[in-house]
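Something for you to look into today, if you have time. Could you write out one complete protein record for me, on any chain you like? The space below this message is yours for that.
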Amino acid sequence: MANLTSTSGFLLMGFSDDRKLQILHALLFLVTYLLALIGNLLIITITTLDYRLHSPMYYFLKHLSLLDLCFISVTVPQSIANSLMNNGYISLGQCILQVFFFIALASSEVAILTVMSYDRYVAICQPLKYETIMDPHACRHAVIAVWIAGGLSGLVHTAVNFSLSLCGERVIHQFFCDVPQMLKLACSSEFINEIAVAAFTTSTAFICLISIVLSYVRIFSAVLRIPSAEGRTKVFSTCLPHLFVVTFFLSAAGFEFLRPPSNSQSAMDLMFSIFYTVIPPTLNPIVYSLRNEAMKAALRKVLSKEEFSQRKMYLKALCKL
């Protein structure tokens, strides 16, 4: 591992100093990144091209995939490059951008998952009012609010985090500029501002979690009253993947951000960081498509030779205009 030669940057320790393990880590992360890239791009493409999927649920799913695509791109490519070059150095500017986009996209993801749970609640518990409540105008405003809220959260966290004076060595025991790890480098007397911001963010995330839980309590209460077993199965196949994604993402992130700080870094810390930075963006396309017949049908249609030929002829006709 290269020495840190500039006081304006940081040294990311990553997973190992062993060269073979670094190469293995880079290959595993590359495969995972490509899977996430392909899966999320497919969902974005399918929900955009197939008019049958132009509904609020798939509109929000498309933005979740876009968030996942950006979210995993913030940390994984940098980590792959560091492992291949055997150099964990990251400049101050890169670290600032990484913290901003990481916090902004993570906050936006929590917000969009909350909106999606509300969408399912309205669709199942108030079906007669669904088109009125979740009209295209309201959906667009909800998505805009999600992106703005995430951006503001990232901006505040970044501004406060990088205004702190550092008293320790500029070494981060993580494969990216992780906020909890960076706080260990700050002088203890200046923790108060970051603690206040972290408390506000945690409270907001907790409110989102409570909203999601309440939505699903009402959803499952309504589902259990459905007389048809086929109807219950259809609703569960739509809601359970979303609940799995929410539980997995928030539990892993909550463990990392809410646990007491420690001066030592363990394999458990790295594992949990992978659980909320790498695995959710990779699993989400699988979770949302495998149990969704509409998504599978749309995927078969988009990938079919007939559909490909039609779109190719359409593009040729446009080029001639």
Notes: Residues 1-6 have pLDDT under 50 and may be disordered. The two ends are 56 Å apart (CA to CA).
